[in-house]
Amino acid sequence: MEPKTIKKIGVLTSGGDSPGMNAAIRAAVRAGFYYNLEMFGIYRGYEGMIQDDIKRLDSKNIAHVLERGGTFLKSARSTEFKTPEGRKKAYENLKSHGIDALVVIGGDGSLTGAHLFFQEFGIPSIGLPGTIDNDLSGTDSTIGFDTACNTAIEAIDKIRDTATSHDRLFFVEVMGRDAGFIAINAGIGSAAAAILIPEKKMPIEHLVEKLKIRSKAKKSSNIVIVAEGGKSGGAGEIAEKVKKFLPSYDIKVTILGHLQRGGAPSSFDRLLASKLGVAAVEGLLQGKYDVMAGLINNKVVYTPIKKAIVDDKSVDEEDFRIAKILST
Amino acid sequence: MEPKTIKKIGVLTSGGDSPGMNAAIRAAVRAGFYYNLEMFGIYRGYEGMIQDDIKRLDSKNIAHVLERGGTFLKSARSTEFKTPEGRKKAYENLKSHGIDALVVIGGDGSLTGAHLFFQEFGIPSIGLPGTIDNDLSGTDSTIGFDTACNTAIEAIDKIRDTATSHDRLFFVEVMGRDAGFIAINAGIGSAAAAILIPEKKMPIEHLVEKLKIRSKAKKSSNIVIVAEGGKSGGAGEIAEKVKKFLPSYDIKVTILGHLQRGGAPSSFDRLLASKLGVAAVEGLLQGKYDVMAGLINNKVVYTPIKKAIVDDKSVDEEDFRIAKILST
Amino acid sequence: MEPKTIKKIGVLTSGGDSPGMNAAIRAAVRAGFYYNLEMFGIYRGYEGMIQDDIKRLDSKNIAHVLERGGTFLKSARSTEFKTPEGRKKAYENLKSHGIDALVVIGGDGSLTGAHLFFQEFGIPSIGLPGTIDNDLSGTDSTIGFDTACNTAIEAIDKIRDTATSHDRLFFVEVMGRDAGFIAINAGIGSAAAAILIPEKKMPIEHLVEKLKIRSKAKKSSNIVIVAEGGKSGGAGEIAEKVKKFLPSYDIKVTILGHLQRGGAPSSFDRLLASKLGVAAVEGLLQGKYDVMAGLINNKVVYTPIKKAIVDDKSVDEEDFRIAKILST
Amino acid sequence: MEPKTIKKIGVLTSGGDSPGMNAAIRAAVRAGFYYNLEMFGIYRGYEGMIQDDIKRLDSKNIAHVLERGGTFLKSARSTEFKTPEGRKKAYENLKSHGIDALVVIGGDGSLTGAHLFFQEFGIPSIGLPGTIDNDLSGTDSTIGFDTACNTAIEAIDKIRDTATSHDRLFFVEVMGRDAGFIAINAGIGSAAAAILIPEKKMPIEHLVEKLKIRSKAKKSSNIVIVAEGGKSGGAGEIAEKVKKFLPSYDIKVTILGHLQRGGAPSSFDRLLASKLGVAAVEGLLQGKYDVMAGLINNKVVYTPIKKAIVDDKSVDEEDFRIAKILST
After folding, report:
1. By C-alpha distance, which of A319, A312, A48 is closest to A187?
2. What ipTM score was computed for the predicted complex, to two decimals?
3. Residue C65 CB contacts under 8 Å (≥ 6 apart), including other chains
4. What's the mean pLDDT when you consider all of chain C?
5. Which of B218, B267, B320, B324 to mutate to test the interface with C (most CBs of C within 10 A)?
6. Which residue of C has its CA nearest to D17?
7. Chain D residues within an 8 Å CB radius of C70
8. What's the pLDDT score for residue A1?
9. Could A74 and B259 be called an inter-chain contact, meaning their C-beta atoms sit closer than 8 Å?
10. Same structural domain for residues A184 and A39?
11. Please, are residues D130 and D144 in contact by the beta-carbon 8 Å criterion?
12. D124 is a domain residue
């Protein structure tokens, strides 16, 4: 597309927050300054766009945010943005500020919003993959995923201390929505006895069999990682089922929960977010609209949002194979 | 009591594990070596004493354990030790190794076992307060409590990132059994909106009122800390009740769970455990039996076990007052 | 002293920053609000007082600061405050804002400033011990000391991984100015082979002898903790000397440096700072002037500043004895 | 090459240790068991091979090592292995144990040893890139690099607390030998004012100019990252030079040092090490000898060792560009 003249860019975060969002905002804003653009923060996502919660950002706004979890622009759900009237209002607010283009950081729902908005009003926009779930195509890793994996293994390391001290069986539930990425990484990274993920059904009998074999081999601790979105149920349900087969086992359940969403971003996520924040602004200046900027094989790639959000990304078969070899 | 001649000391950990137990074992063993004693590890608590899971320890056994969570001597429940026959068997195993005295590290149940054993067989023993719950008298702080508080606030710091990004209300449940020590410390330390602990009933209406006032003051995040043993129910139940009063709030619940028991011990717990490990061995050599060694005002104090386990320790009223002032 | 009417309190941090200063500021400000006072932030310590860098604080200013290292009020050295003219200017600025009293958070230099200011102008002031060095009397622990000890042992835990993998001898220098508190805690907490602190001279020959004995006992790693202010020199110098005696040893030096000053405060420091922040405001309202608020045996104690800064606090002999037993 | 029959594999770590080495050892050993091989640990690298410090490993040896920094097989320098006699002795020891093949984990020196050994004695061997420096070709990332970057940014985050509180200029020296990978990642990840790396000369005047501009823009903290192997000197030297130009600046230097080598490996390094450990054993079984297994674009790639150790890997120009945009 022929690049439009862009002088003012609005940045927003939407959907569940993820570590590195602040680093991405900062990078986009700083890149904007580098190209002599005016940069605006749209607070509380699409809701703030509708309610005109929009402020011009200067370098003070983005000082000391890179290293912080969450998003200083805040995030919120917006039911109103799902209506044509809501989006109209949002569009008018953008116009009143003279905002020419958008950088939208979030998961598939957030990018869908950007896509729709572009279709309706022609506002150039680039999405950035900001979610701990890693469930977006068009990028090897989403912003926040690496940090969430680190948070998960650090928590599981602590649980293992207790599991080992008591010869216990722990079921630990990790996040990831319908994708098993955090589960597979955390599972391999914490020497899990088994990993249950949405992409792959494991009959309860197989799991029980595996645990029995390990018990005979006198493995002193057993940690089973369960992804939250699995069809076999959450960690609590699966633990209940296993309990029936192995009544003598000392079984505990821990659901890691929201602490996986927060925390200072990892080095990897800071770098990823920084590169993508710059890529978002440079992409807009080059006329790349309605796309998501991602990093594939360490190169910036712009993928049409419509393609990025069709979630055909699932855990690599090779990773399963490795997990199986290592947990035998 | 006239000190008996002690040449061989057995060390065991029992009950729920806590960070710093390894540091305490190491200190006791190293103090034993200093006084030219033979030191034995009794594995898996009283159960291992009955099953003769007892090994002589040398300095290699205690290398690189100080900094690790859990207990390398392992811990286990023993129903058999609750019977006179079980204790008889345990006693005979000790005698067969020539073990003259015991150091028992654990919570009230573990110390009760040591007390009973001393009454029945006259085996000199000293208990050390090893529990994250801080619910033992005779010491300002139990081994593991400080680490558990740090683990809790680090997790809550992460949750706050998310709470703030979304203007959410989080109910976070921390451990502590029937005592609110972790809750009050984590609550003050994480700027909680409210702290619900077993020692103090807070009517749900008061809590709702407090949250409403904060909402008006536009506090951007609200974290309510709930101690696990509270009469008003766990974090899930309380969240349900509050939800009825505040249906528009975006409410989430996280139960920190067992990760609070693990992890590398804090500097405070390493020091406490090191001092008490030495105090246990020196106390035995001085004829102090059937007591718990604790640290009060940074001095070693030996309290009769019977007195230490009568749990009259509860959260300081002054700490409440501070919490109230700070959360207004 | 008969309490004066106090309506406006200024808070400042001065000297080297320490983790927990923000928590102390927040607690003081929040306590001020609780007692319906106006609270002012004096930025950049005494320098800002002279330059009238003073702003009224509201609850937004102290949101999300409790958990952050450093001091949002900033700190600076002021040579001008050491002159009568400088202090006069500072006093006039306070008067122009109507500030009736001061809370000064910092080390001995900072408290000396407060004392002098009180003597000259009669401005009621309370000092809080904010320093990682723990070198102030009138409190068991200074704000930031516990966090610095945790930072030190976490760093040493990492160094030990490498020391053990290579059978190396490491000299690790920790902070503490003229006091060995961080060194002794970090030394006991990291199973150090030896601890060199300013309070206690250890001839180089003794150290060498100790290392040789350990070498014979096949201890796989040797970490020697050196306090920065020791008379025998820093870690680098001592390592050089030891090298001459033990030329075959693989010796490395790490100076932990300023990272010990930063980081999120520990649970202990958050609690200590919160209690002392409240105590500062309540003390002022009760007419306690020219004193430092500290926590002794977990009770708030107000000590005349003149007495608190006379540094007769040194590492407990008992701690040495423990360190010696544990490193044999 | 036609695969030889391999039944017994020896694993060793050599050179500087890096976080994830234990995870790589574990993965190789576990993969060996999966393929019904006997696995041997060669302790203390090539030195242990010469001194016959070789033990058969069972599953107990590799329990609870994945999450630990360093290498439980230990590492050592061997001057003797550099002589034909030394290598002959090493070869004979391998033969006496019936060891058919080697997995060598380490940096370029270690891999060079494996290459030479293969040339001389035809012992099939596969190298794994174990170094924090990321200076090996044939893999996107070396084992330990990601963890070292995380350790660096966590330390710098703490230093920033202090830098910001005092408006200070900090020079922080990070590791990386002759490569600037840690420096560029840590620099982008910590919002550094400037990054000095061996691959790129920055005249001192440019640096001073940059710092002056930032000073005018009232940036409250300035952190300059210096890679250890830079031609302009270490952090201390550069700080001295800058001091001459900017005498009024409050300048501090911190050399992060060996703590960057230790610590629990990150999720990324655990996964990388696990995959490569399996790839080493599977590669040997498939007849891939004298190669290094690496991960490029998330696929296992076997590169001739001779090619992998020719260090033509240097920091990506694009990363510089990003760093420049973000630090303006």
Report:
1. A319
2. 0.96
3. C22, C23, C25, C26, C72
4. 95
5. B267
6. C162
7. 161-162, 164-165
8. 58
9. no
10. no
11. yes
12. yes
Chain D residues touching C76 at Cβ < 8 A: 166-167
Cross-chain residue pair D63–A26, CB shorter than 8 Å: no
Please report whether residue A320 resides in a domain: no
Q: Which of B256, B300, B326, B328 to mutate to test the interface with C (most CBs of C within 10 A)?
A: B326
Q: Which CATH number belongs to the domain containing residue A271 in this structure?
A: 3.40.50.450
Q: Give the integer Cα–Cα distance in Å for C191 and C194.
A: 9
Q: Is B120 in the same domain as B203?
A: no
Q: In angstroms, what separates the C-alpha of D91 from chain A's closest C-alpha? A: 30
Q: In this predicted structure, what is the pLDDT of residue D220?
A: 67
Residues of C with a Cβ under 8 Å from any D Cβ are 13, 16-17, 19, 21, 68-71, 74-76, 151, 155, 157-162, 164-167, 170, 252-263
**Is A100 in the same domain as A164?**
no
Q: In terms of domains, do D25 and D127 share one?
A: yes
Task: Number of A to B CB contacts under 8 A, please give it.
Answer: 113
Q: Give the distance from residue A7's alpha carbon to the nearest chain B alpha carbon, in angstroms.
A: 28
Which stretches in chain B have pLDDT values below 70?
Answer: 1, 220, 311
D26 annotated binding-site participant: yes
Number of B–C residue contacts, CB under 8 Å = 118
For tokens 């099953």, name the residue. Answer: B51
Taking the C-alpha atoms of residue C148 and residue B266, their distance in angstroms, rounded to an integer, is 11
- Residues of the domain holding B222: 146-261
Would D322 be classed as within a structural domain? no
How far apart are the C-alpha atoms of B41 and C287, rounded to whole Å? 57
Q: What is the mean pLDDT of residues C145-167?
A: 96
Q: What is the dihedral of CA B76, B81, B83, B89, to 10 degrees?
A: 140
Q: What CATH number is associated with residue A157? A: 3.40.50.460
According to the model, what pLDDT value does residue B1 have?
Answer: 58
A191-235 pLDDT tens trace: 999 999 998 888 999 999 999 988 887 776 789 999 998 777 899
Confidence of residue A86 (pLDDT cuts 50, 70, 90): very high
Question: Is residue A325 in a domain?
Answer: no
Each residue's pLDDT tens digit, B36-47: 999 999 999 999
Q: Residue A292 — pLDDT band, cuts 50, 70, 90?
A: very high
**Domain count for chain B:** 2
Check whether residue C191 and residue C240 sit in a common domain. Answer: yes
Average pLDDT over residues C58-79: 95
Which domain-ending residue is among A205, A234, A262?
Answer: A262
Of D135, D165, D162, nearest to D148 by C-alpha is: D135
What is the rounded distance in angstroms from the CA atom of residue C189 to the CA atom of residue C169?
Answer: 17
User: Are B80 and B64 in the same domain?
Assistant: yes
Residue D67 and residue C161 in contact, taking contact as beta carbons nearer than 8 Å? no
CA A136 to chain centre: 9
Answer whether D204's CB lies under 8 Å from D232's CB: yes
pLDDT at D20: 98
Q: Cβ contacts of residue B83 below 8 Å, gap of 6+?
A: none
| Angstroms from A168 CA to nearest CA on chain B | 10
Secondary-structure breakdown of chain D: helix, strand, coil percentages, each rounded to the nearest 5: 45, 20, 35
Q: By C-alpha distance, which of C201, C209, C198, C195 is closest to C242?
A: C209
The rounded mean pLDDT for chain B is 95
State whether C325 and B31 contact (CB < 8 Å).
yes
**pLDDT value at position D1?**
58
> Other CB atoms closer than 10 Å to residue C6's CB: what's the count?
18
Does residue B72 contact residue B28 with C-beta atoms inside 8 Å?
no
Identify all chain A residues contacting D219, using CB atoms and an 8 Å cutoff: 59, 63
Q: Cβ separation of D190 and A66 shorter than 8 Å?
A: yes
CB contact under 8 A, D158 and C68: no
Residues from chain D contacting residue A189 (CB–CB below 8 Å): 66, 267, 270-271, 274
